[in-house]
Every structure is written in C-alpha cells, then in structure tokens.
Write a structure and sequence with these properties.
Blueprint lengths: L11 E5 L3 H7 L4 H22 L3 E8 L7 H23 L5 E5 L7 H13 L7 E8 L1 H17 L10 H5 L12 E4 L18 E4 L9 H12 L10
Helix pairs in contact: 1-2, 2-3, 3-4
The structure holds 3-methylbut-3-enyl trihydrogen diphosphate (2 copies) and magnesium ion.
Length: 240
C-alpha cells in the first residue's frame, strides 16, 4: 500500500461519525456503549490528525434531526461532551495544541453542555495546532436558512445591496466562515448519504465511504482514507 505523503496533508477533513449503535448491537450492548467507545476513538483520531498536521477536523456529533431519538439516548449524547471535557480537561487544555470549536445551534443545548463547550473554546482559542470542531445540533438546512435570514436583514436595514450578494456573502454567514475549504469528507458505517452535513462546504470535497463502524475507525484506518484522498485528481471543473 502507498505511504502517506506528508507534503500533501489535507487542510480540512470532516467526518460523519456513524455506526456507534450498530457497533454496540453486535456486542449485545446498549447503544450508549457504542457512543462511549466512539467518543474515546475520536480522541485518538484528533491526536493523530494533529500529529500529522491536519489543520481542521470537523466532526458530526449530533444532527438537528437526532432530537427524534429516544429521550434516554438524546440525554446521554447531550451529557457526553461535558462529562468528557470534564474528565479530560487537563489533557485537552494543557498538554496539547488542539483548539476546540463548536458549530450548530446553541439555543437548544442544555446549559451544562453549552458552558463546557464555551469554556473549552475560550481556554484553547490561542492554540495553534489542529482546530477540532464538534458539530452539535448542526444541520445544513438550519445553517443556510440562518445565513439567508441574516443576509435578508442586512438588505432590509440598507447595509447591503442585493447586487453585492455573492458566494463570499453566503460563506461569511455560515458557521464555518473562517474555515478553509473542505478537502475530504468521510462517512463511516457503510451508509452512502450525507444526512444534512456541510452541504455548501462540500461542493468540491472528495468523498470517502467506509463500512467500518466509527468505534473501529482507528487512526490506522483514517490514514488509509488519507492515502486514498492523496490518489485523487482534483480538477475543480478545470483540466489537469
Ligand atoms: C453515530 O452513531 C452517532 C450519532 C448519530 C449521534 P449512530 O448512533 O447513528 O449509530 P447507528 O447508525 O445507529 O449504528
Ligand atoms: C448522521 O448520522 C448524524 C451524525 C453522525 C451526528 P445519523 O445516524 O443520524 O444519520 P441517518 O439517520 O442514518 O441518515
Ligand atoms: Mg447512524
């Protein structure tokens, strides 16, 4: 197998981390057992991504549609990041260069979760390594709708002329406004769909689907995805 070319590491990778429930089911365990293992695996992936110089890793943790799940599971998922941040606070904040961010709606999150997230965003805002972004209560329909509302308000208030609306106007009203272009989008668990994730951002991303359930998507498997990415010929509509 080809080696990873360290001179061509993508800047921005996103992961739809899927298959935690099925991973647990295979082991006759409750779904939340899979979520816990997924959370630990994410830590390994983030460390690996940081060590090889990926600048942005944006992971889908909870969609705007995931509120439909049973209350017990939703409450576990809402609790996990704050539990996790509390438990690993020291290593997350002090012994690493990782910078943490969240994208998604903040108005429906439990206070405890929101506080844990804003604290870690603040504590790590000057970190210069990987930016690890958790997409929580995130959905592209919501993100784009919110952007449209903001732009419409600017037009209404006379701050913006309709003729001046362009791609940059839209981009600068998305959660990812300061992020580099999305190079690679990975989905685990054998599902071939996007489930309302980064629809605008992925216009020219490379896509990578794997059957591996997220808790088993180790740094070694992540590396395979990156090697595959490096074999692609990105043309952006031109000729190469
Ligand atoms: C991904 O795993 C995590 C979240 C969506 C929160 P799932 O919980 O979707 O696991 P499966 O797809 O049911 O196996
Ligand atoms: C997408 O996974 C959302 C996250 C990974 C957070 P789902 O498991 O919710 O997606 P569907 O329902 O299979 O499309
Ligand atoms: Mg799923």
């Amino acid at each position: 197998m080809a080696e990873l070319d360290m001179t061509r590491i993508p800047n921005h990778v996103a992961i739809i981390l899927d298959g935690n429930g099925r991973w647990a089911k295979e082991r006759n365990k409750p779904r939340i057992y899979g979520h816990r293992h997924g959370a630990f695996n994410l830590r390994d992936l983030a460390r690996y991504a940081n060590s090889i110089g990926i600048k942005y890793l944006t992971v889908y943790c909870f969609s705007t549609e995931n509120w439909k799940r049973p209350e017990k599971e939703v409450s576990f998922l809402m609790n996990t990041p704050s539990w996790y941040i509390k438990r690993f606070w020291k290593s997350m904040v002090e012994n690493t260069t990782i910078r943490y961010k969240m994208i998604g709606r903040r108005d429906r999150l439990p206070k405890k979760l929101l506080n844990a997230i804003t604290d870690i965003e603040k504590e790590t805002e000057n970190h210069t390594g990987l930016t690890l972004t958790f997409a929580i209560d995130y959905g592209s329909y919501d993100e784009i709708t919110t952007a449209v509302k903001k732009i419409a308000a600017d037009v209404k208030d006379g701050k913006l002329d309709i003729e001046d609306i362009n791609e940059k106007t839209i981009e600068s009203n998305l959660f990812t406004k300061d992020y580099p272009q999305l190079d690679l989008l990975i989905r685990t668990s054998g599902e071939y769909r996007i489930s309302n994730y980064l629809l605008w951002q992925m216009a020219y991303s490379e896509l990578y689907f794997t059957n591996t359930y997220f808790p088993d998507f180790t740094p070694e498997k992540f590396k395979e995805a990156l090697i595959d990415f490096q074999s692609r010929n990105r043309r952006f509509g031109g000729l190469k």
